[in-house]
Design brief:
CATH architecture of chain B: Beta Barrel
Radius of gyration of chain B: 19 Å
Largest sheet of chain B: 9 strands, mixed, barrel
Number of domains of chain A: 1
Structural class of chain B: alpha+beta
Shape of chain A: globular
Order of helices and strands of chain A: HEHEEEEEEEEH
Largest sheet of chain A: 9 strands, mixed, barrel
CATH superfamily of chain A: Calycin beta-barrel core domain
CATH topology of chain B: Lipocalin
Strand content of chain A: 25-35%
Distance between the termini of chain B: 25 Å
CATH topology of chain A: Lipocalin
Strand order of the largest sheet of chain A: 1-2-3-4-5-6-7-8-9
Strand content of chain B: 25-35%
Number of strands of chain B: 9
Low-confidence stretches of chain B: 5-36, 240-245
CATH superfamily of chain B: Calycin beta-barrel core domain
Helix content of chain B: 10-25%
Strand order of the largest sheet of chain B: 1-2-3-4-5-6-7-8-9
Order of helices and strands of chain B: HHEHHEEEEEEEEH
Shape of chain B: globular
Helix content of chain A: 10-25%
Structural class of chain A: alpha+beta
Mean pLDDT of chain B: 85
Radius of gyration of chain A: 19 Å
Oligomer: heterodimer
Low-confidence stretches of chain A: 1-36
Chain lengths: 234, 245
């Protein structure tokens, strides 16, 4: 996060340089204008930062947990946070991290570049399905589609080594995360997150997270547990 | 690397979808064609895999090291055959799960994807989900950059060649798996050229007056992997948390 201010001056140039290309990407080629009547893809690109820190997604009430999950949640103290073992946050917890995340839109894909531990999330928007039997990973397998002005992202294939959030809500490998991400105004990104995990919860539940655009910010280098790595590095 | 084959079937779809957009990116809007006489930006995008021998230099190349660097390198090579990597027991990437950093990350047995954005080229490395941002918007390096594992990179196009200039690198890494040392004064210039559709070659110039007596050169090459995608890989994931510390 250091040097954010100094970097911001340079970044202004990058933002300006960006604009013409977005136009070029959505502009139909000559002759195609009539054939291609679909609305242009909404633009979510930019560097975003959580509007406020929170332990979990903003929601009404407590998620309806299965008994084992409730017991695990009660025992979820700071001392047993997987983060202390330098485990990745994984999805969806990484969405709550108070560090910037950049959204990059390229054909067939939306890429989320998280500053936190330089994580990259690939969201395929080329119409593919999830793989049939996906190996669990920290970020899972994400596919997306546009529903009007909203990017709808569907994620499965998440390992059960992570917490859902900073509060310590547990989940199983049956976790299915749905996000509806839209630009409420030029500077505001709103994501409605639905958590569906029948092994851990008695019914799906939803929460929300709001992000603000940081026009002149760039993703900088941040390495998880770097201060530990430095100890005794030869 | 698992499921590479299965996923490649899905990936083909992505590649097909990709193609028209690359055209759209370089296609000039009508009317602007004459005003904009510059050659179209070369396309290096795609998933690339580095050559199987993970070295920039030949085994018998003698690099012009400063005495302290030579001493350090001697220790790293102790008991190793010239074709072996540096000693595992003092390799920071193995003993501390430290990031390989740049330029070592270029020469690894994992794919790397190049994504070209306006004003920027991204290198997405499968290895520990590292990202390299190469700014092509004409900016300069910061005056006094804090050293990082990937450094600060700026790039420009020289005809069909992508020229990348990197400084601001931490001295905690090895230059490559063979264990060449370097200081935080390391300055690397890479010249990437797509010699044919499936091959990307890079010539590297290294300059590090604190560790070497003069600049020296190396080279490396990548092969296009159509249908591949960058998958999730986490450094030291297979180790227990305590070991990872």
């Amino acid at each position: 996060m250091r040097s954010r201010l100094a970097g911001s001056i340079l970044a202004g140039v990058a933002v300006l340089a960006f604009s013409p290309v977005l136009l070029a990407q959505t502009a139909p080629r000559p002759g195609e204008a009539k054939a291609q009547t679909a609305v242009p893809t909404p633009d979510l690109s930019g560097v975003w930062m959580v509007r406020e820190r929170s332990n979990t997604f903003d929601m009404k009430g407590e998620p309806p947990m299965q008994p084992w999950a409730e017991a695990k949640f009660k025992a979820a103290t700071k001392e047993v946070d997987p983060y202390l073992s330098c485990f990745p946050h994984g999805l969806p917890r990484i969405l709550l991290v108070p560090m910037p995340l950049e959204i990059v839109q390229i054909p067939g894909r939306v890429i989320m570049l998280h500053e936190f531990d330089h994580w990259v999330r690939q969201i395929y928007t080329d119409g593919r399905e999830h793989p049939k039997d996906v190996d669990p990973t920290w970020m899972g397998h994400s596919i997306g589609r546009w529903d009007g002005d909203t990017l709808v992202v569907d994620t499965v294939g998440l390992n059960d080594k992570t917490w859902l959030d900073y509060a310590g809500h547990p989940h199983s490998d049956a976790l299915h995360v749905m996000e509806r991400i839209r630009r409420a105004d030029q500077d505001t990104l709103v994501s409605d997150v639905t958590i569906d995990d029948p092994k851990a919860y008695t019914k799906p539940w939803t929460g929300q997270k709001v992000y603000k655009l940081r026009r002149d910010w760039q993703i900088m280098e941040m390495v998880l547990c770097e201060e530990r790595l430095q100890l005794g590095t030869r | 690397m698992r499921n590479r084959f299965i996923r490649s079937i899905f990936a083909l779809g992505a590649v097909l979808v990709f193609s028209p957009v690359i055209l759209a990116q370089t296609a000039k809007p009508s009317g602007a064609a004459k005003a904009q006489a510059a050659a179209p930006t070369p396309d290096l995008s795609g998933v690339w895999l580095g050559q199987s021998v993970h070295r920039f230099f030949k085994p018998n190349d003698v690099l012009p090291m400063q005495p302290w660097a030579e001493e350090k390198f001697k220790t790293v090579r102790e008991g190793q055959d010239p074709t072996d990597k540096g000693r595992n027991d003092i390799d920071p990437a193995l003993t501390r799960c430290a990031p390989p950093g740049f330029p070592r990350i270029l020469a690894q047995p994992y794919p790397m994807e190049i994504v070209q954005l306006p004003g920027r080229v991204l290198m997405l490395f499968e290895l520990d989900h590292w990202v390299r941002h190469i700014y092509t918007d004409g900016r300069e390096h910061p005056k006094d950059p804090d050293p990082t594992w990937m450094g600060h990179s700026i790039g420009r196009w020289d005809g069909d060649t992508f020229v990348v200039d990197t400084i601001g690198l931490t001295d905690k890494t090895w230059l490559d798996i063979f264990g060449y040392p370097h200081s935080d004064a390391l300055h690397v210039v890479e010249r990437y050229r797509r010699v044919n559709h499936g091959s990307l070659q890079v010539g590297l110039t290294f300059e590090d007056p604190k560790a070497y007596t003069k600049p020296w050169k190396g080279q490396f090459s990548f092969t296009l992997r159509p249908g591949w995608e960058i998958e999730e890989q986490v450094l030291c994931e297979d180790r227990s948390p305590n070991e990872a510390r």
